[in-house]
Amino acid sequence: MELSVLDVLTRIPLFEEIKNDEASMKILSGVFTTRTYHQGETIIKEGDVGSEMFIVATGAVEIQKRTRAGDSYTVVKLLASYNIFFGEMALIDDDKRSATVTATEDSEFLVVDKKAFLKLGNDYPHIGLPITRAISKILAGRLRKTTEDMLTIFDALVSEIQN
C-alpha cells in the first residue's frame, strides 16, 4: 500500500486549522519522514530523551507506563484509524519520555523531529503557530485533567482519614 502523507496529515486534529490550505499542507508534509516498526518493537521507551513526534499512519500501538515500584501497566491501545499521534511534547521540551510505546502489529508512522519542526515554525510561522497552539491546547487539557484527578485523590484520602 502506498502511504499518502497528505491524506494522513489532513485527518490529524493537530492540523485542523491548516488542513484546507493546500500549500501549507504540502510544506508540512515535507518535514515528515516515514518509518516502519514491526509487531513487538519499541518505538519510544519511558525515561529516554526523545526529539520526535509520531503519527500512526497504519497499524496499532500500546502505550505503557511504569509505577513507582517499577511495574508496567497498559494505559491505552490505539489504532491508526483513531487518527492519533504521540511524542508531541518532545517538539516543545527536552525532557524524558513519559511512557513506552510499542507496536502491537506491523505499523507505519509519519515522524517529525524537533529540529525540523522548529525550522518549519521559523520559516513558515503561519504553519507552525496553529500547530503549536493545538499542542498547547492538548497540554492544557492534560494539565486540567491531572489537577482534577489530584483533587479526587485528595478528597478520597481526606474522607478515608475522617472515617
Strand order of the largest sheet: 1-8-3-6
> Kindly, what is the distance between the CA atoms of the first and last residues, rounded to a whole number of angstroms?
61 Å
Largest sheet: 4 strands, antiparallel
What would you give as the CATH superfamily? Answer: Jelly Rolls
Q: Radius of gyration, Cα only, in angstroms?
A: 18 Å
Mean pLDDT: 93
Structural class: alpha+beta
Helix fraction bin: 25-40%
Query: Which strand-content bin applies to the residues?
Result: 25-35%
Keywords summarizing the entry:
single chain; 163 residues; alpha+beta; Jelly Rolls; 4-stranded antiparallel sheet; 26% strand; globular
Summary of the model, kept short:
The chain has four helices and eight strands, in the order ααββββββββαα. The protein is of the alpha+beta class.
Structure notes:
This protein has helices spanning 5-10, 22-29, 114-123, 125-162; strands spanning 33-37, 42-44, 52-58, 60-66, 72-79, 85-86, 100-103, 107-113. The protein has one domain (5-162): Jelly Rolls. With 163 residues, it is an alpha+beta fold. Helix content is 38%, strand content 26%. The strands form two sheets. A four-stranded antiparallel beta sheet has the order 1-8-3-6. The longest helix is centred in the C-terminal third of the chain and has 38 residues, at 125-162. It is globular.
